[in-house]
UniProtKB/TrEMBL annotation:
Residues annotated as domain F-box: 159-206
PROSITE patterns: FBOX
Secretion signal, residue range per the UniProt entry: none
Protein name per UniProt: F-box domain-containing protein
InterPro entries: F-box-like_dom_sf, F-box_dom
Amino acid sequence: MMATIEKNSLSSEFSSLLSNTLTSRGHERLFNIAFVFTVETGFIPISLEEQFNSTDSNIKLAKTIKSQPLNSFWYKDNDNFHAKLVMSNQLCHLIGVSIDGSLIITLIHSSISKCINFEDDEIISSENIKSLFDLSLKYKNLVSVPVKCAIKEITVGQYPSLCGVPEELISYILTKLNPPDLYSLMLSCKKMYHLVINNQLIWKKIVIELVTTLPEAPRLLVNIPDWRLCYYDLNRTVKCKRKVVERIRE
């Protein structure tokens, strides 16, 4: 189950990189987690600027960072943390300020800044993959993606496309779509096609919701290899039954 969640939330390389953050403790661990989330959004440590262009979920970048100690990408002043990153050649600052038992994480570019408060209980819950996914979603929604969009608007004159959004945010958007919309999204590009067709958790959720219209269906939901195809078969059955009912009523 955990492997399925991991596959549908964080890429394997970034998930592995994130696991390295859990070896540290306290505020250092929280800052490392925020640093990884920021890099996964497409921000690049300034020390690696010449090797990489701004990118999204770049596996090579994740491997390069993983090969070095995470604290080599930032410096600490008392109990505060500071890392320099770039996005589209624009300098940004990731700052962690310790206040009582929490760490205020702020991502700054020019006059744009977004912040989030990481609490001590999130330090504990971050041991769990699902909690890390939720924390990643919250962080990117509130901090890294808004700053990224602002930079893209300044540098290229427009917000990044949906393909420029981190995959777990796209997965969250997918949960809000109905099957016809999902199929339309699959037709937009190869990346969206694979994200939709491979997200078994979403199709399983849709199937379970559809099952309520088929009393005999629960006994059929055993050893399902592909929940999307299962939805297709069940939906066809539902439509056939509706046609029969309509004919009887006529």
